[in-house]
Amino acid sequence: MLKVENINAGYGNLQILRNLSFEVNQGEVVSILGTNGAGKTTTLRAISGLIPIHSGTVYFNDVLLNKKSAEFIVKSGLVQVPEDRKLFTDMTVLENLEMGAYTKGARKNLKKNLEYCFELFPILKERIKQISGTMSGGQQQMVAIARALMAEPKLLILDEPSIGLSPLLTKQVFEIISEIKKNGVTILLVEQNVNQALQLADRGYVIENGEVVMSGDAGVLLNDENLKAAYLGITTEKVAL
Amino acid sequence: MKKSHIFYGIGLILIALFPFVTDNQYFMHIAILILYYALVSQAWNILSGYAGQFSFGHAIFFGTGAYSSAILLSKYNISPWIGMFIGAIIAIGIALLIGFLSFRYKLRGAYFSLGTLAFAEILRILVQNMDYFNKTLGILLPIGDNPWLFQFESRAGYFYIILILTIIVTVVAYLISKSRLGFNLIAIRENEEAAQSLGVKTFKNKMIAIAISGALTSVGGTFYAQYLLYIDPPTTFGNDVSISIILPAILGGMGTILGPFMGAIIIVPLGELTSHFFGGFAGIHLMVYGLILVLVILFLPEGLVGWFQEKMRSSRLKKEGNQNDITET
Amino acid sequence: MSVELFFQSLIDGTLMGGIYGLVAIGLTLIFGVMKIINFAQGALMMLGMYVSYWCFAILGISPYLSLPLSAIILFAIGMTMQRGILQRMAGAPDHNQLLVTLGITLFIENLALVIFKPDFRSVTVDSLPASLSFFNLNIHTTKLIAFLFAIVLAIGLFYFLKKTFIGKAIRATSINSQGASLVGVNITKINYIAFGLGAALAGVAGSLITPFFYTSPTVGASFILKGFVVVVLGGLGNFIGALVGGLLIGISEAFGGVLLPGSLKDLMTYLIFIIILLLKPSGLFGGKTR
């Protein structure tokens, strides 16, 4: 579905991504992992058209996305929940969700999708008229995810959905992502919480310094010694009892 | 002696010989205008180009200089030379007041610019409504030929005075740019918070900048009053004055020493030419100024001199890069 | 001050305040969406005045009928300004944006000066009584109509922004433009529309005042400064604040005109401006700071 090949991108003269390649197939959950500054968010910004791609290609359902505008990319079905959520903080929950359905296609099914979102996030239905900026971090995250769902994504991108959330809320968020996966939405998940991410994902890629350094099935990666040492802080030495 | 210093020295001598080359009064007038615009724009440059505090109301200092010397001459028979000095002192007072209010209350960017605009308008309205300043009638100054009263029979006299004054202001700006103060101002311009955290006394430095800028601008105002021999509130405190003060620096390059001068050399003759050819249409030269302003900001925001300096810098870096490659082999 | 004078000033100030509010709403809309301080708003208003003036002088049409034409023409001009010039300035420092709009103002005002000459022109609306009497108070009919129009427009705009999808998109863009991109909003198009709207509001304000204000190329200058005062007073980007601020400035100006001699009434406005800038730059109602 999504095929990213050898992309190079960055900010001004600073290059972040170096010949980065990965792909996401329909129905999958793919996770991109890496430490801070590895280039995960930059990758997502590049795919969604927020920053330009200097070279390389991004194909989504055989359509080249490189030079297209962010709106076009959303209209093609590639929708992102950004790391900082980018909510319309002065607008109500309902208005945020309505804005999620801005594209013509999504607008037709607005009522139906709204119902679906309220099923997934009952708390949003309660607080439908609340100004989103006044909500807690966890609730805002739900608004952000719901808003993206309103856009009827074919591929949903989530950039660090658990960031700043308590373990309990993180668990809730991942349960919801699991639900969304069950409903047939393809998901690209960027996470620092490696454990949770790989438990949910089918496959994963590890990025370091703007390049893919490891990839494979989620189960394999989860048990990989090197990965554990680097990102989970677990050593391979057995502790003497 | 550096190459550039010799260059400037020769240039200066050539300029000084100008009145001997021609006694066409119109050309002299243009030359005087160029120099006087360079002067006030350079003064503005110190506050806005170097310190980055963008003033849209510099007419307030200009008008102060003009009215101070004019009032002192017409009412108290005090020589404009002294008047110029007193005007500068009053301008410093006003500058410190505006500076205190603005900087103490952290007016930055557009808020500061609009604030200075308001201050200038306030003073204009006050002057315009007070009998002491002759309200809207303005002040007419006596013609004469007494140099001690800043009166010259021929334009050449005015030319040399403005030349000397402009040189003084340019030298002051140059010295500032190379001094600790200049360094601080640039740091403030680039990132005031960072400068402050590095120990730069931002408030004090900005106050010094606005005081110097105001004083020098008022000197220009005094010259204007004595040259034209008539002043009124709109032509000394008006918004048009503020705009014409900033235009040369923007075109030539804010934050550079040569900038205001380059800008004045282009803008003044351009304005005169347009007025000349389209004489029937009042205001056409302002249209051209507006167009230039838009084009410069869009395509050459660092001004002509700034752009040129950038080119020189990047070509020098390239050359050094090549040299390094050579030595490496 | 007599009670009559008090209420007369209050009324005059409120009526004029509606116009200031309209100009300020345009300014604040543009700022909210594009973070641009449109110095040319006064000049655009002046152009609106001339559209209505020429419709009146040549075709004999009342300014209230030529008002839509003024809105359309100014919408187009505003959109062109954004598309042709201001769009390229996105991300440029504050003062550069001010300078560009200042340059545009210089150009427009002097172009008008060259084409229309500096003459003061007036428009009359003969079909209406000059003024209405209300409890011994004098209400100029044309000022009243201007005020009512302004209020209706403000309410209309309010609903447009609240209820329509484009209106919501405009609000969303002004809150978080990247977020808006990510839900499929065409930011470039929204910017065109927002600027066009802001300019159209200025044009309409111009048309509305032609019956009681002389039309001349430099008329925009005083309105732009007052517009800024109102916008800062009400809070940058704050729609309701712009309207309320307009009324406040209109009223204080009216009282200033009665209490202070000569042209000192403008002094009131500028002093209020300075005080607000110093003490509460985010405005009485808060708004976005830059």
From TrEMBL, chain A:
The record ties this protein, via SUPFAM superfamilies, to: P-loop containing nucleoside triphosphate hydrolases
Cite the ABC transporter domain residue spans from the record. 2-234
- Domain of life, per UniProt, equals Bacteria
Q: What residue range is the signal peptide?
A: none
Gene3D superfamilies recorded for this chain? P-loop containing nucleotide triphosphate hydrolases (3.40.50.300)
Please provide the record's keywords in A-Z order: Amino-acid transport, ATP-binding, Nucleotide-binding, Transport
Ranges that cross the membrane: none
UniProt-recorded Gene Ontology molecular function terms: ATP binding
PROSITE patterns attached to this UniProt entry:
ABC_TRANSPORTER_1 (PS00211), ABC_TRANSPORTER_2 (PS50893)
Family, per entry: Belongs to the ABC transporter superfamily.
Annotated protein name in UniProt: ABC transporter ATP-binding protein
* Taxonomic lineage: Bacteria, Bacillati, Bacillota, Bacilli, Bacillales
Automatic annotation (TrEMBL), chain B:
What span is annotated as the signal peptide, if there is one? Answer: none
Superkingdom to which the source organism belongs: Bacteria
Annotated localization:
Cell membrane
Q: Which residues cross the membrane?
A: 5-21, 27-47, 54-74, 80-103, 110-127, 157-176, 207-225, 245-270, 277-300
Instruction: Return any one Pfam family short name.
Output: BPD_transp_2
Which InterPro entries is this protein grouped with?
A: ABC_transp_permease (IPR001851), LivM-like (IPR043428)
Q: What UniProt keywords apply to this chain's record, in alphabetical order? A: Cell membrane, Membrane, Transmembrane, Transmembrane helix
Q: Does the keyword Cell membrane apply?
A: yes
Q: Does the keyword Transport apply?
A: no
Q: How does it sit in the membrane?
A: Multi-pass membrane protein
State what protein this is by name: Branched-chain amino acid ABC transporter permease
UniProtKB/TrEMBL annotation, chain C:
Residues passing through the membrane, by range: 6-31, 67-86, 98-116, 144-161, 192-213, 267-287
Q: Does the keyword Cell membrane apply?
A: yes
Keywords of the record, alphabetical order, are:
Amino-acid transport, Cell membrane, Membrane, Transmembrane, Transmembrane helix, Transport
The keyword Cell membrane is annotated on this UniProt entry: yes
Q: Which CDD domains match?
A: TM_PBP1_LivH_like
Q: What membrane topology is given?
A: Multi-pass membrane protein
Q: Where in the cell is it found?
A: Cell membrane
Q: Which Pfam families match?
A: BPD_transp_2
InterPro entries named in the record? ABC_transp_permease, BCAA_transport_permease
Q: Please state which protein family the record places this protein in.
A: Belongs to the binding-protein-dependent transport system permease family. LivHM subfamily.
**Any idea what this protein is called?**
Branched-chain amino acid ABC transporter permease
Q: Which organism is it from?
A: Ureibacillus aquaedulcis
- Species classification: Bacteria, Bacillati, Bacillota, Bacilli, Bacillales
